[in-house]
Amino acid sequence: MSQPAAAYSGESRRRVTAAPRIYWDKRHRVFFGKYKVDDRWKNKLVPVNVTTEEDAANWFRLWIQRFEQTGVEPVNHEVRIERKTIRNLAQRWLAWKGEQHKSDRRALSGCKRLIEKWVSPHAISDVDLETELDIGQCTAWIEWLQSSGRAPLTIRNTVQGLRGFLVDVRGKGWVRLRENPLLDPYVKRMLRGTDTIAGKNTIIHLNATEANKLLVCSSPLIPAMRKVRNLIAIATGARMGEIGAWRWQDFDLEAPTPTVRIFRQLQFSAEKGRPVFKEPKRKSHRVMPLHRIARKALRWWKDHGWREHVGRPPAPEDPVFSSPQGQYTLSRSADSFRADLAIAELPIVFDGKHPFTFHASRRTFMSLLEAASVPREIIGALAGHASKGVADRHYIAKNLNRFHDAVCKLPLPDTLPWLPTDQPSTTRHAGAATSPRGP
After folding, report:
1. What confidence tens digit (pLDDT) does each residue in 301-326 have?
2. What is the distance between the alpha carbons of residues 175 and 168, in angstroms, rounded to a whole number?
3. 315 three-class SS
4. For 402, phi and psi rounded to 5 degrees?
5. Rounded to two decimals, what is the model's pTM?
6. Is the Cα torsion angle 295, 296, 300, 303 positive or negative in sign?
7. Domain boundary assignment for the chain
């Protein structure tokens, strides 16, 4: 026996005087409702094409409403439950996704953008998922996406988003979907050959001369934090989220081989500046050796620059590249990186047509190592790419000195004009991180 349907109210010629209920007839395999009118209990069979208890309850509710409004028992075909379309299920799905991602505003925002920007404007959003959705409508939607001029990877991710929607509503039992058309081999063939917006085999990066010109630029228009961050990004090849998650305690600047530990990345900052972290891409946990000039810049930033930026000495748990309030932050890195290039009188587009983003620093790191004849397996390990073999992932201890020798081959500047060399180290404060010697 199922839960009772909601009670109804309102003026009518005949009123239902008790809460209607929905039941399942095992013998005839059909739902039926019981309702009381004029002090008499009556039964009402639900149409056999209504196959779920939830739909039966909704259909019976609508039937009762029409009966109360007219005083006449309506004919079955006059009562229709809401069609199960993407548009009609969207808010229910978004509410459920909100429960799943309470602390992940970015994931929920992506779900909303999928529905509002890429699905609702197309006819596929009003197709009944149980009776009308087919492969032809899905491919028509994908062709519409492709005609929008978006990057192939964006289109692939959008298709994956709607594919996930169908998986969710089917798994929750909200629709009786026999198959997911977006898993059809024809759809997969349509999405083959996806490439970055830069184009096939285009690697947006700075050459050695451009990288050095950016790093030695002493213009006051580039804030000190961005100067240090640009240097560390090119010297380590770390991803933006990994850099944003760094704490001072993740660095060992006093060891004979200075290192930074990479074990997470900053996903976004939630309410009140609370950071949300996740594992690095492909779970690429690693220990990165630091170039000599990178250690020098970090020592200065820790002893002097960070204090001036925030107004207090750093603690071990403080983020290395923080907001002026000392909180974790993910700034508009692409815009600031292009601004720094322009200030250093460098192009802000690669090959005359591809805008630079902060990710170019990671490609620059790998390209400079490749030009220095560093073996590709070492470059991949330093960059945190997935190892190809089980032995590489689990059993072979990485040789830190070998990695450090590779990093030292980066053609970075020997000195930085904007980095003071005669400023004494700050006094240690209780509760603050141990301040290393000045550069």
Report:
1. 999 999 999 999 999 999 999 999 99
2. 10
3. coil
4. -65, -40
5. 0.64
6. positive
7. 21-78, 86-190, 208-407
